[in-house]
Please model this.
Amino acid sequence: MIKVKKRKILLLPGDGIGPEVIAEVKKIINWFNDKKSLDFEIDQELVGGCSYDKHGTPITDEVFYKALESEVIMLGAVGGPTWDNLEFSKKPERALLKLRKELKLFANLRPAICFKQLVDASTLKPEIVSGLDIMIVRELTGGIYFGEPRGIKPIENGERKGINTHTYTTSEITRVARIAFDLARKRSNKVTSCEKSNVMEAGQLWKEEVQELHEKEYKDVELSHMLADNCAMQLLRNPKQFDVIVTDNLFGDMLSDQASMLTGSLGLLPSASLGAKNKDGEMRAMYEPIHGSAPDIAGKGIANPIASILSFAMALRYSLDLDKEADILEKAVQDVLNDGLRTKDIMSEGMKDTSTSAMGDAIISKLQ
Ligand code: NAD
Model:
């Protein structure tokens, strides 16, 4: 068993705009090392299409082992049209799936925050989204995306049958629910658990296990249960009713995408994928912006680095126990937006057009 090295951060910039946005994160980590006397040890490696080009595989064993011993992985993005026609096992995205699966990163945290300076970027009315701050916790390694049996098989009459199996066990449900309850305690103390207990047995089990855990360990947190289809509707009708939403892999996939678009810009939203804590309290975790490699703007120096920088703020908070530093970094991002600095994706009239690296520099100057 490879031990996690405390404070070791592995940067995996990946493809497209990945290297551009992770370069800004690197500047910020170096700032914390220099100015706050923090001792982060940084390493950087290839992953995705660029790794395939050099080594013929989207992630080498060497990089994978480095990931295993790192306390924090900061990923940029992988993929792009150059690698679209590769066989399945060589595709850039396989590197991500391997990291998530082998590192057992079972809880995906996706905040959806609507910055007040950017309410107009949302397709919803300002009063519905202004001040929105919700956290979706999606189960990431179980459910229908992994259940067996699965496949496509021939049946009678020349027809075919596609099969996927939706399964959850008690421990798979309670470990992700525990993360949601713990997070809620640090926020507005409210959890909404979503499933389809009306039509699915696995959904009924989900509801019962979350309820039982709540009664045993988290009575101080307000818990409600909601059918996932109703949650999709409520997210559009009145998203501010939610604090933490916990749900399974399939529903979480959709609900988290829906919630992220309430805020209007892909370039602003971070995410975290967390594993279990071992007996020494160590946890593996990967942090990444929710956007992809944006090949249409790669190399132009105009990508928005804020999603990646806020992903690092999540790493400070959830992996490195540096809540105060996370607060400072998030505040610096707000201050820069208040000053009217904008990358092209969030540009509006009267604001200052800012490049990727100028945005990183401006955030650092606010940190000073
Ligand atoms: P995308 O998120 O890369 O881009 C969608 C749109 O948003 C584009 O117009 C892009 O220019 C813009 N955009 C995205 N991030 C931005 C940023 N930080 N600043 C400014 N504008 C930004 O999604 P896509 O176009 O569907 O996918 C492109 C490639 O990325 C595909 O190969 C896809 O497989 C891959 N992808 C990777 C990940 C990941 O690595 N986690 C996630 C999604 C997509």
